[in-house]
Amino acid sequence: MAEPISGQDSGLAPYHRRIVARTDPVLPAAAVWIDGGLVDPARATVSAFDHGLTVGDGVFETLRVYGGVPFALRRHLDRLGASAAGLGLALPARSVLEGAVAEVLEAAGLSDARLRLTLTGGPAPLGSGRGTAGTTLIVAAATLEPFPPAAAVATVPWPRNERSPLSGYKTTSYAENVVALLHAQGAGAGEAIFANTRGELCEGTGSNVVVAREGRLVTPPRSSGCLAGVTRALVLEVCDVVEGVLALRALADADEAFLTSSTREIQPIASVDGRPLPNCPGPLTKAAREAFALLVANDLDP
Predict the structure, then answer these.
(1) Domain 151-298, what fold?
(2) How far is CA 116 from the centre of its chain?
(3) Does the domain formed by 13-143 have CATH 3.40.190.10?
(4) pTM of the model
(5) Quick check: helix, strand or coil at residue 9?
(6) pLDDT on residue 161
(7) Distance from the CA of 196 to the CA of which of 31, 51, 112, 300 falls in 20 to 30 A?
């Protein structure tokens, strides 16, 4: 287990900040909290037998931080709870989660950042069965690397299974996404797009998709197997976007389209499988970006 930072209330604040709020580019995180306290990011570890490591048994959330404040924290914690319940994982109390987030953001000292909460099945015997030691909770903050102003996307030949027991949950079982993204990158794209088993447009590896169709913005329904993205939900609420079943081909044939995610916000799609879209960003995408930016400016926990 990672080594806790001691002396937080004993006049060692400068030392504490120096240890916890690392900005060394070698380290992926500036501040880390594991199972009850801040730890040195350089020594942040979990058991070699943690079920999240051995079999990908875990759930997570990634949030955008604006001005040191986590955006839509309530919605993200609600979804974390739904994912944990779907996997039968015991989630710590909301007060514990909120306290860990506050500690990490204070220690990191980052204005704009990426924040991640991860809950795993905890230490367990090798194999699929869970152990009895309880879950592992990790909260980490890192510098947010900017995305390109527009995305090149590539469709992949493997479907997203909308009938999977994990469909709709944000789990750490991400190997499928890793392989899909490698495929897209090999084709010169920055995001991979899945159809589902019915051949319908579904989602990206870490994003939802919105397509301009007949003058309206349409996003696949949750029944397609896509994740219930937080940014997707907000876009449905504040922008002129509706849900609708779309063939995969609808993306390549769109007048304009964009991706949504907590870290991307709204990112226009420039090309699909190497073919440029007519408008990037198009007028509907621009209007959606303006509406979302206004929401962020006025309410950090919508």
Answers:
(1) D-amino Acid Aminotransferase; Chain A, domain 2 (3.20.10)
(2) 8
(3) no
(4) 0.89
(5) coil
(6) 97
(7) 51
